[in-house]
Amino acid sequence: MTTAPRFLVDHLPSASATVERPHVTLTWAQSLDSKIAGPGGLRVILSGPESMLMTHWMRSMHDAILIGVNTLILDNPRLQANLIPPELNLPPPQPLILDPKLRFPTDSRILHEWNTKPNQRGKTLRQPWIICGDNVPPERIKLVEDAGARVVPVELDQNGHIPPSSLPMILTSLNLRSVMIEGGSKVLSSFLHTPTRDDGSRLVDSAVVTVAPMFIGEGIGVVPLGEDVGLPKMKNVHTETMGKDAVMICHVEDQ
Ligand SMILES: NC(=O)C1=CN([C@@H]2O[C@H](COP(=O)(O)OP(=O)(O)OC[C@H]3O[C@@H](n4cnc5c(N)ncnc54)[C@H](OP(=O)(O)O)[C@@H]3O)[C@@H](O)[C@H]2O)C=CC1
Ligand SMILES: Nc1nc(O)c(N)c(N[C@@H]2O[C@H](COP(=O)(O)O)[C@@H](O)[C@H]2O)n1
């Protein structure tokens, strides 16, 4: 596949996304029993080759990919679009980590790759940017920046989280036009429970959900236990079969 799947082009940010109003996409892969990982957060490969490639196309169609710090710690992901043919020279997505307390492990794979492959910078790799609380001690920020990451301190909410409603403005300040939020469970839940941005407009523009025909049983749900109340109504705008998986594109309905 040398071009993005048509249904993604039709539904995801293209010319419409701007730095002034960044496009926010939520995405995850889940089992038939709505789990995104195994017991204790054990990483599970849910996506087959076709939908995994589709996920990498999605990554390359957004300026940034965002995950919560627990996903970084548990999965140690690469967050690249490395399944896309390199000869297409598509700009790599910007990795963003939501990490209020700046727990970021400096031996993480994303930072190691950035530090050890200088010739890939700007080609397949971007520097990891960590969004933390503005109460993190300067010594800790210095340690993480000295290790090679960029740290972006922001105001936290009363739960000590980065408020989802403020993320679009943070993206604007970082000159990013779109973000693909990959998880995990707590981050997805906080975005699904927040209807609007600080400017009053809708927060989540699209959700792209890969459903794999398997059961996980005990594991991590799409949203944490007890947070399945007050979720928004979703509208299915497209369903595509990709290999063994079904991929649904949904919009959040006005509440
Ligand atoms: N199948 C899939 O598609 C995917 C699966 N996963 C799975 O998800 C699991 C991890 O999920 P989970 O444990 O819920 O952790 P998350 O990755 O959602 O990270 C949660 C942490 O992010 C920080 N945070 C900052 N801002 C927010 C906010 N607005 N809302 C919520 N958290 C915020 C908090 O850090 P602090 O506690 O320091 O304050 C919080 O504890 C892993 O097992 C991973 O494998 C992850 C991505 C995709
Ligand atoms: N699309 C998708 N399908 C799955 O089966 C998954 N387990 C995930 N997980 C997400 O992808 C990250 C790993 O990415 P890298 O390949 O290391 O770049 C992982 O952290 C989850 O965010 N996604």
CATH-assigned homologous superfamily: Dihydrofolate Reductase, subunit A
Bound molecules: NADPH dihydro-nicotinamide-adenine-dinucleotide phosphate, ligand LIKH6CAM
Percentage of residues assigned to helices: 10-25%
The topology string of helices and strands comes to HEEHEHEHEHEHEHEEEE
Indicate the proportion of strand residues.
15-25%
Structural class: alpha/beta
- Sheet with most strands: 9 strands, mixed
| CATH fold category name | Dihydrofolate Reductase, subunit A
Pathway: Cofactor biosynthesis; riboflavin biosynthesis
GO molecular function, one term: 5-amino-6-(5-phosphoribosylamino)uracil reductase activity
Family: Belongs to the HTP reductase family.
Function: Catalyzes an early step in riboflavin biosynthesis, the NADPH-dependent reduction of the ribose side chain of 2,5-diamino-6-ribosylamino-4(3H)-pyrimidinone 5'-phosphate, yielding 2,5-diamino-6-ribitylamino-4(3H)-pyrimidinone 5'-phosphate.
Description:
This protein has one domain (19-182, 194-252): Dihydrofolate Reductase, subunit A (3-Layer(aba) Sandwich). The longest helix is centred in the first third of the chain and has 13 residues, at 49-61. It starts with 5 loop residues before the first helix and ends with a strand. It has helices at 6-11, 49-61, 69-75, 109-116, 138-146, 167-173, 185-192, and strands at 23-30, 35-37, 64-68, 94-98, 129-133, 150-154, 178-183, 206-211, 220-221, 234-242, 245-252. It has 255 residues and is of the alpha/beta class. The structure holds NADPH dihydro-nicotinamide-adenine-dinucleotide phosphate and ligand LIKH6CAM. The site of NADPH dihydro-nicotinamide-adenine-dinucleotide phosphate (NDP) has 30 residues, from strand 1, strand 2, strand 3, helix 3 and strand 7.
